[in-house]
TrEMBL record:
The keyword NAD applies. Residues 183-414 form the Glutamate/phenylalanine/leucine/valine/L-tryptophan dehydrogenase C-terminal domain. Belongs to the Glu/Leu/Phe/Val dehydrogenases family. Keywords: NAD, Nucleotide-binding, Oxidoreductase. This is Glutamate dehydrogenase. Substrate binds at residues 70, 94, 350. InterPro entries: Aminoacid_DH-like_N_sf, Glu/Leu/Phe/Val/Trp_DH, Glu/Leu/Phe/Val/Trp_DH_C, Glu/Leu/Phe/Val/Trp_DH_dimer, Glu_DH, NAD(P)-bd_dom_sf, NAD_bind_Glu_DH. GO terms for biological process: L-glutamate catabolic process. It comes from Fimbriimonas ginsengisoli Gsoil 348. The record marks 146 as: Important for catalysis. PANTHER family: GLUTAMATE DEHYDROGENASE, GLUTAMATE DEHYDROGENASE 1, MITOCHONDRIAL. One of its GO terms (molecular function) is nucleotide binding.
């Protein structure tokens, strides 16, 4: 997934950019640039044909100064420990920008889930979680879904840990099915947060979202929900894609119909015929007002940033724009709403789910959505004002806020012993 771009280097470069504004001392900068715990596990699974296959997985906790660590689990063939560390670091800043009491973590397994049966997926999940269980806990480290994982996988994680401790522990993982202690609104939360920040950012650049043309890369949980809710907010979705490729229709695509037919199924969107087929790289360069990269990292780079035509980029994915792309986009006047702000809706509602699980008291969906919207709007407002104060781009502004909150917590706690 990292290809030519080292995602961990990218995350460290972003931290260094923000550190300059904060006057961080070298030791503290080093603390913040380094994960506190990294576990690499290799474990066997007996496959359906009776053969044993060995998988490799990771769990990285980046920083726990502000609370238990929180971060998704990704199943993808290209993951590695460096990318997982970068994603864990971004989780730390994301939780701090949203001002929720969590540190950051991430887990992953190198696997192509398309090659596994449902039973193999379940066995692999249960064994992976058993291997990393020393790090997990409702008060220590709480996973959630990411690429390649979903509510069913979270249910298996909850069940596995519950079997090991001898009682049900719903708060050890979020993004669970509602009937197992999941939260109303969690499935749509990241996409909903993306659209709330899109609406705020449209005001910043004076764009009327009503009728604005939007292109979305990735038609999974985040991309498909963002497309659907952006359409409900009045935008016209002109391009969408999944891992196999995309479709484009300047007059607009019937997103609700596409959502019901293809959401989460790779190759699905290309089956829709009343549109022009485009590659994923062509999709990013389509004429539009708003671009939502909601798939994988490093999609907008120094190589293609000058060809991006959107005025506004809202990062549904983690790390879709590289630092080189950021500089080019900033020079062109394109506003980039960074991942640690734009896609924080998922972890915010994960926080609500965790709180509900610990209290065993559950909220209605409109309560979840209105609390989410309030946090997303106030986080956006703080970042926008930091952007003006520091005269910088929005990513650096968000990092200044997030990194400062984590640095302050670290200083106040002191360095043990
Ligand atoms: N799920 C969440 O709550 C959440 C929260 C915050 C951030 N994110 C980030 O959002 C992104 C998407 O996550 P998701 O949960 O929607 O995953 P998902 O597995 O539900 O969907 C991923 C989508 O991306 C597509 N895709 C994969 N590789 C691609 C490629 N090379 N080019 C174009 N499309 C490709 C897939 O076909 C699929 O449509 C990830 O970067 C993830 O880290 C997710």
């Amino acid at each position: 997934m990292s290809q030519h771009i080292n995602i961990l280097e990218m995350a460290r470069r972003q931290l260094a950019d923000a550190a300059q504004y904060l006057d961080l001392d070298r030791g503290l900068h080093q603390v913040l640039a380094t994960p506190i715990r990294t576990l690499i596990v290799r474990f066997p699974v007996v496959m359906d044909n009776g053969e044993v296959q060995v998988f490799e997985g990771y769990r990285v906790q980046h920083n726990a100064s502000r609370g238990p660590t929180k971060g998704g689990i990704r199943y993808h063939p290209d993951v590695d420990v460096e990318e997982t560390s970068a994603l864990a670091m971004w989780m730390t800043w994301k939780c701090a920008v949203a001002n929720i009491p969590f540190g950051g973590a991430k887990g992953s397994v190198k696997v192509d889930t398309k090659l596994l049966s449902k039973r193999e997926l379940e066995k692999m999940t249960r064994r992976y979680v058993t291997e990393i269980n020393t790090m997990l806990g409702e008060r220590s480290d709480i996973p959630a879904p990411d690429i390649g994982t979903n509510a069913q996988v979270m249910a298996w994680i909850m069940d596995t840990i519950s079997m090991q401790v001898g009682h049900t522990v719903p708060g050890v993982v979020t993004g669970k099915p509602i009937e197992l202690g999941g939260s109303e609104g969690r499935v749509e939360a990241t996409g909903r947060g993306v659209v709330v920040t899109m609406e705020e950012a449209a005001k910043t650049i004076g764009l009327n979202l009503n009728g604005a043309k939007v292109v979305v890369q990735g038609f999974g949980n985040v991309g498909a929900t963002a497309a659907k809710l952006a359409e409900e907010a009045g935008a016209t979705i002109v391009g969408i894609s999944d891992a196999i490729g995309g479709i484009y229709n300047p007059k607009g695509l019937p997103v609700h119909e596409l959502f019901n037919r293809y959401q989460g199924r790779d190759g699905g969107v290309r089956e829709y015929k009343d549109a022009q087929a485009v590659s994923n790289s062509e999709l990013l360069e389509l004429p539009c007002d708003v671009l939502v990269p909601a798939a994988i990292a490093a999609q907008i780079t120094g190589d293609n940033a000058d060809r991006i035509r959107a005025k506004l980029i809202v990062e549904g994915a983690n790390g879709p724009c590289t630092p080189d792309a950021d500089h080019i986009l900033s020079d062109k006047g394109t506003l980039v709403v960074p991942d640690i702000l734009a896609n924080a809706g998922g972890v915010v509602v994960s926080y609500f789910e965790w709180v509900q699980d610990l209290q065993n008291f559950f909220w209605e969906e409109n309560e979840v959505n209105s609390k989410l919207t309030r946090i997303m709007r106030s986080s956006y407002a703080s970042v926008e004002s930091a952007m003006k104060v520091h005269k910088t781009d929005m990513r650096t502004a968000a990092l200044i806020i997030g990194v400062k909150r984590v640095a302050d917590a670290t200083i106040k706690r002191g360095i043990f012993p």
